[in-house]
Write a structure and sequence with these properties.
Blueprint (H helix, E strand, L loop, with lengths): L1 E8 L2 E9 H16 L14 H8 L1 H23 L9 E8 L3 E9 L13 E4 L6 H14 L2 E4 L10 E10 L2 E14 L9 H5 L7 E7 L8 E15 L5 H7 L5 H35 L6 H14 L6 H27 L6 H14 L4 H10 L3 H18 L3 E4 L7 H8 L2
Parallel strand pairs: 5-11
Antiparallel strand pairs: 1-2, 2-4, 3-4, 6-10, 7-8, 7-10, 9-10
Helix pairs in contact: 1-3, 2-3, 4-7, 6-7, 7-13, 8-9, 9-12, 10-11, 12-13
């Protein structure tokens, strides 16, 4: 087999593949066996029908069609490897010529990853914000810790108001009919936190124990988040008493003996979070800088096909404004993927089993799933290769970030080793 490559544009090529019949012959033989398994010929067992009888029953042309269809993927794949192409879409294949017992010639047009020139990352500088840490942020975290150890005390003859805690029952109905799972009892809720149903805080304000009130609200989980009627019954009003901020609290809430030690630890934790945020900012700034400086061509036909498929799934093919929005989003996404995959190739990056396992562990925890269930779900969805690509891209970004100069707006150089470790997460 030999092939020639014609570059149609920066992102699309045409392969012309010439297959001598001797290389097609094994596929012809397999085609005879496949067809022999499907036909019934008196006097012969399935799969044991001679080739001459198969020709009589279905015709030589049917055998050739079967052989060609089953072999194209293999020959096309060999041509892609021969020319070291990174394909981005399914090929469009056309049979150019077939001479029985002599040759098969076919062509394949396909979108490929364009070639882009990456900079010397040791000469690249990205700027991030300085880390600013003040006492208010530390106090806020300490107060959150106090709230975790606060105790609720019931209040008598006190209406519900913002900042107090209540025990409530809820009943949700649509058109007078209670929805499935629409009744929940003995919910503890902080009035004014706006963490549950829209309208609940307004309804609770001023209510007394034993009273009920109905209001209209969007119901999560219903079609198009349709509105329904919600009835809230107030069962108790409580006030949270926070523990006194002293050394006893430090011992209660942590492994530290003094409040001073606890506050120092909280300050350290807040600072680490800010360093993580700084790391992510450096990574994202680097990507945006590279995208802005690179002229990355995109496969227009692939974009058009994916946009059409997306709009069809939403039944919005004629929504031109939405088409423009989806096209811009998809174009931006593909440009970023081309850039990152080029870096992966240039850095010769491949994820280790440990890195993939860490990714699966973190992702499954984010979705509230076990690692086994998570990997089964993405496997069933055919997303394993996408997962590997995500890990490889993150690893490649960490590699180039380690060679990039990162400075704050005040001119301080950021230690890159911590960023290198963080950016791969």
């Amino acid at each position: 087999m030999n092939s020639t490559l014609e570059k149609l544009d920066e992102t699309r090529v045409k392969l012309v593949i010439n297959v001598p019949f001797v290389e097609l012959q094994p596929h012809i033989n397999q085609a005879y066996r496949t067809i022999a398994e499907k036909i019934n010929v008196p006097g012969f067992r399935k799969g044991k029908v001679p080739q001459s009888i198969v020709d009589q029953k279905v015709g030589r042309a049917a055998v050739v069609d079967e052989a060609i269809n089953s072999s194209l993927t293999s020959f096309y794949g060999n041509a892609v490897k021969e020319h070291d192409l990174v394909v981005m879409s399914r090929p469009s294949v056309e049979i150019n010529e077939f001479v029985d017992n002599e040759k098969l010639i076919f062509s394949a047009e396909v979108d490929v990853r364009p070639e882009i020139t990456l900079p010397d990352f040791s000469t690249v500088t990205v700027e991030v914000d300085d880390i600013e840490l003040n006492d208010d942020e530390v106090n806020q975290q300490v107060d959150l810790l106090r709230e975790r150890f606060g105790k609720l005390h019931p209040l008598e003859n006190t209406p519900a108001k913002k900042g107090l805690f209540v025990s409530i029952d809820l009943v949700a109905k649509i058109d007078g009919q209670e929805i499935e799972g629409g009744t929940v009892n003995d919910i503890s809720y902080e009035v004014g936190s706006n963490k549950m149903i829209d309208g609940l805080d307004d309804a609770l304000e001023g209510m007394n124990v034993g009273e009920s009130k109905s209001f209209e609200s969007k119901l999560v989980g219903q079609t198009d988040e349709q509105k329904g009627d919600v009835t809230v019954t107030l069962k108790a009003v409580k006030e949270r008493e926070l523990p006194e901020l002293n050394d006893d609290f430090a011992k209660l809430a942590s492994e530290f003996e003094t409040l001073l030690e606890l506050r120092a630890d909280v300050r350290s934790r807040v600072e680490r979070v800010k360093k993580l945020e700084q790391a992510y900012a450096a990574r994202d700034t680097l990507v945006n800088k590279l995208l802005s400086e690179q002229n990355i061509p995109i496969p227009n036909k692939m974009v058009e096909d994916e946009v059409n498929q997306h709009l069809a799934s939403e039944n919005r093919e004629k929504d031109e404004e939405h088409r423009k929005e989806v096209t811009e989003q998809l174009t931006s996404q593909i440009k970023k993927e081309i850039l990152l995959d080029t870096i992966v190739s240039a850095e010769n990056i491949s994820p280790t089993e440990e890195e993939l396992s860490q990714y699966i562990y973190r992702a499954s925890a984010n979705y509230g799933m076990s690692p086994d269930n998570f990997i089964k779900q993405i496997s069933d969805a055919g997303q394993i290769s996408a997962m590997v690509s995500d890990v490889a891209r993150a690893k490649a970004l960490a590699a180039i970030l380690s060679r990039t100069k990162v400075v704050t707006k005040s001119g301080q150089v950021v230690e890159i080793e911590a960023l290198n470790q963080t950016a791969a997460e």
